[in-house]
Fold these 2 entries.
Entry 1:
Amino acid sequence: MPSATPPPKNRRQFVRTKVTLVERVASVVCLVLLAAIGGYVLWKGKHFDPALYSVRTESLQTTTNEVKGEDGTVRGADARPESRVATAPKPEAVVAASAAEAAQTPDASAPAEGSAPSGPPIKGDPLEVNLPGTTPMSDTEFYGPNNLFEKIDGRAPAYLTFNFQQLRCRSFSVTGAAGSYVDVYEYRFDTPINAFGMFAIERDTNGKKIDFAPDGYSGELGYYFRQGVVYVQIIASDQNAKTMALAQALARDRAKNLKADDSGLDGRRQLPSTGLDPATVQFVQENAQGQDFLKNVFQAVYDYKGKKLPFFIMVTKPEDAAAAFKSFQEFCGKFGGTAKSLPDVNGAKIFSAENFGTYKVVFQRNGQIGGVFDADDIDKGRQFVEEYLRGELQ
């Protein structure tokens, strides 16, 4: 058998068995450095410094060039939600702040503080707040119907549907909390009822009731409420205790200083409070329940004897309420079910109907029309309406 091929002459046959002291020390140093780097990265990850990401408003100045074509962006009919008014009136000129909130609107020849650059200057009084621990981060900003999309792109069409007039907003830093701030947004509408309508659409069903504004709630990062014709949003940058305390103080300040006005909200006040789920209160301008004769309707869901009952109220002229009641009864008798008259209760006419597997119990009394709709229990629905008409539900 031939012998194995001998190894090449240039192959090293020596195997080192000893590591020098220098190499040992270098290895230990490398391991220590790696451990130190890893520990530092871990520490930094648990000690976030929000000041690193605080807003530098001066860096945004280059973005304030005039935007072309904004009118077509927000005015197109296809931009408006189908569930709201399809032909809402065109918003009027931006109204001045009320005398109770500001001393006087600046002269037309004077430049407005923080005016948005697109279109004609939008004027208004600065949003001044005198609270300890607050420092304005910039001038007050103003936006109108033509350029609201610059501030809240994507949400602007819904605001225009409710006849939005002006947004006044400003940010305030929190003393002693680096990088923390609170944004204050005041959306002004033409009427309290439209301000409530926009507030109701954006209401957070998980919000908690607040004690300083009847139409309002608090969320994880702020406070939201309607006061008069203004829909207010107070939004904190974080959940730091100082930040949230300042957000509440700002909310209370605005609720105290903005003029209270509930005109046009008669229907809202006639919703009973017994069993009411406040997060479900809504205002529908047109075509409530798909009926063109139901306008400016308030509705909400009630917990009643183990059932969820949607209930609505419309307040109008007596002759209009009577006409709507008759049209509603005729509709329910023609499409998908039956309708029958029920005995009068406390001066109110009543009918019940079954349509497509759900029930309605509708009443009309003077200038008021309302009732239970889309209920799955006709008996509970009738009991609820009759107790409401007798004044047993407060």
Entry 2:
Amino acid sequence: MSSFTYGDSCQTGDDKYVIAQFRSDASLDWVADLRAFLMKDELKYKWFNPERHRVMAKADLWKRVQDGVHQAEITILDPRRYAEFAMAEYLEEQAVPGIDFDTRAINEKSGRYLIEGSPLGAVSAFEYDWLADNTRYYDGYVSGDGGVHIGGRFSADSVKQRAGGKLHDAIVVAARSHAMLAPSEMNEIMRSCFGYGGMDYASGMDLIKRMTRVFDVEHPKSIPILNEFSERLAHAVGIPHSVSRAIRRKGIVSEAGSHDIDHIQAADLAAGWAVDLLTLTNGDYRTLAQRFAWVGVNGVLVPS
């Protein structure tokens, strides 16, 4: 099913959250061969990296691994930029560090800002979206996936609480929403929703289909949020309510274990590779963009 994309994540030492993704039609015959060479029943970067030089000595396999890994699409969320903005806002108000605010306050505010700056936050700006105003739709409503929908708007605060309430929860759900939409696709949606060129039914359905994701098992609380996100986007681009609601019920976003899925194993390898490259280049995103299919940071595409 070529519409599916599989993803896995890794985190840098300076708190950047990195998701690597492979489309279901990616060429991944190298994964099984690398597993066999390493004598592992599952491929993970933490097991590959110590054996890297041994793999490099096998020239044909090394080339195939490099070419294969570089098919990955890399999504990065850098929470430090939002923390810096939160800090600057406090200082502009002449608040005193350690007295008027502390690290916890910075984390609370930056967690809200990074969700607001993600596609999740953009959805809440669609004022004419009936889902945003029809609180009866949410009050006491329990979805088929077991997630309780909170009354009121799809706000950054409610999303953060539903995800778990901590900064890391906000980072994961925001990063996954960025990963579901390439920056160009998000721009296409914004143009459509704010009157700069509508999207017909077929184009809208194709866009939603491309958002189908299978992530490695890491953060199950994000799944009902992201499926509701897909429903809201579907409605925002003109797909009828009956169809958009069916999209959420079907659940186009899910988690799955990596043991039997080559795509997620490849994503684990690519995410670790990207993190190491960021460390070696002191966070040079352009170098990263030269090595992978594309790289986006906080919703902005990095030129190669």
